Amino acid sequence: MKILLIGGSGFIGRFIVRDLIAAGHDVAVYHRGRSTGQLPKGAHEIIGERSQLGWKRMDFMRVRPDVVIDCILSSGVQAKGVMDVFRGVTPRLVVLSSQDVYRAYGILLGLEAGALQPVPITEDSDLRSHLRPFGADHLKTMQGTFNWIDDEYEKIEVERAVADDPELPATVLRLPMVYGPGDPLHRLYPFVKRMDDNRPAILVEEGLARCTLPRGYVENVAAAIALAATSERAKGRTYNVAEPPFSEMEWTRQIGDAAGWNGEVIALSREETPEHLRQPYNLAQDWTVSGDRIRSELGFTDPVAIPEALRRTIEWERANPPSGVAPTTFDYPAEDKAIQRFKPTSADRHP
User: Fold this and answer.
1) Domain spans of the chain?
2) What is the pLDDT of residues 249-267, one digit of tens each?
3) Does domain 2-343 have CATH number 3.30.390.50?
4) Under 8 Å between Cβ of 257 and 307
5) Is the pTM of this model over 0.90?
6) Is residue 208 classed as helix, strand or coil in its secondary structure?
């Protein structure tokens, strides 16, 4: 197959390209030319900005892709533009969305009223009614990390813009929180630093300790995207991509096992939890997401087991610590005081 990726040179995209080339597909990547060294050997390049997509239509027509994967759609306006450019150029579109579209996420943020959402969350679960949930400051922070995010970020509007077009059917992949080598958010770093600093315990607010958050290792997420892009059955379908669920307590223990750390994982009440570790969320709402549909319909399985995924990620985090971390993120004196007040039971101890 001939496959064109938009924004395929970043954190997730480079693994998608790698997998597609390894499977024998002819892959072209449209990107800004600022991360060429990350592209696997064999990928063709088309250089340009997203704002220039329309000007590059003739280049895309020469490629005649069997499918286009857009890795960096941010808003409904962008999605409509992509549909206009590629209608008549390709018979299929694959769009990367997010599990932040679900109403459960809005409840977790405190933006949605009403009853808690049942879990696990499936592709048919309710979506948020509150659009554009991120304030200006948070959006600016996101843009500092992900420069493809525009001021109108909203994945719900992306999905609406690509839905039900008979000329250009779209596959939508709702992604979890993605971790792994190259993670621009360094999601595992707060755990790894504490473990490498030989902290005797890691503290978790008890509401969060019970919660399950959707996660996916980057190479596994990329493999799911590559499979959906090359599967005819995925045309017009929506899929969650998520690992088997673990509570935050279980997740922290798994990281500890992979890191070779033997400390305690302690769940504390909100009042006992140091202020810098308290969560500003409605933790009564769980965020367990089911990835069963893509597994049952397309036969997807994770190519990298979770222990190995954590090992690779921890190795990368140790070699690439983030810069500019606020000292208050690791307020060890406050954590020590909480640890001293806590008398862990055998049930709470790290096995």
Assistant:
1) 2-343
2) 999 999 999 999 999 999 9
3) no
4) yes
5) yes
6) helix
